[in-house]
Amino acid sequence: MLAHRLIFIRHGETAWNVERRLQGHQDIPLNEKGVWQASESGRRVLKMLGPRGVRADNLRFVASPLGRTIHTMRLARQAMGLPEEGYDVDARLKELTFGDWEGLTWPEVQARSPHSANWREGDKWNFVPPGGESYAMLAARLEPWLERVESDLVVVSHGGVARTLMQMIGGLASERAALADVWQGRVLVFHRDRFDWD
Q1: Is 85 designated active site?
Q2: Structurally, how many domains does the chain consist of?
Q3: CATH of the domain at 184
Q4: Among residues 40, 95, 102, 133, which one is catalytic?
Q5: Are 102 and 24 in contact (CB under 8 A)?
Q6: What digits encode the pLDDT tens for the residues 17-26?
Q7: Within its chain, how far is the Cα of 88 from the centroid?
Q8: Which of 49, 67, 140, 182 could form a disulfide with 162 if both were Cys (CB 3.0 to 4.6 A apart)?
Q9: Residue 11 falls in the annotated catalytic set
């Protein structure tokens, strides 16, 4: 059970999101819509917490180190009326890596590796792409980070991380968590043993 509130923002849209390419650890920048979504996420957090809440000493900010999450964090903080700086970076919040599949669309993966693609569709949580990692491996990476959460947090990270936290904190079945929608431009709030979209 998570004692503190974890306010989760997925990075804004990128060209690869539009093309439905597997991004993983690739450093793809925000597109124009993604810039708007990043600011919109910040406005939603400000509306939720209020000006005093976003400036509270017990509220920390942390982001994945990839460019699209750093850019989202800075834009979100600006929208909250905060300086761009003033957040931590933690590599454990990186997206799961798709290894050799990064940069491909799912139809391209199916054409190149039909057996592996079918295997992943049958067990998305546990399947490890060639040179990549599974959601289960991502959960193992996130577990020590989650255990050290000692204050309310605003986190800017990735869709795969959000899905994994849905399973770890909210108890969503792994097969459902791996398929869950994670929207850009909205805010996902984790607290105790549940999660809700704002």
Answers
A1: no
A2: 1
A3: 3.40.50.1240
A4: 95
A5: yes
A6: 999 999 999 9
A7: 15
A8: 182
A9: yes
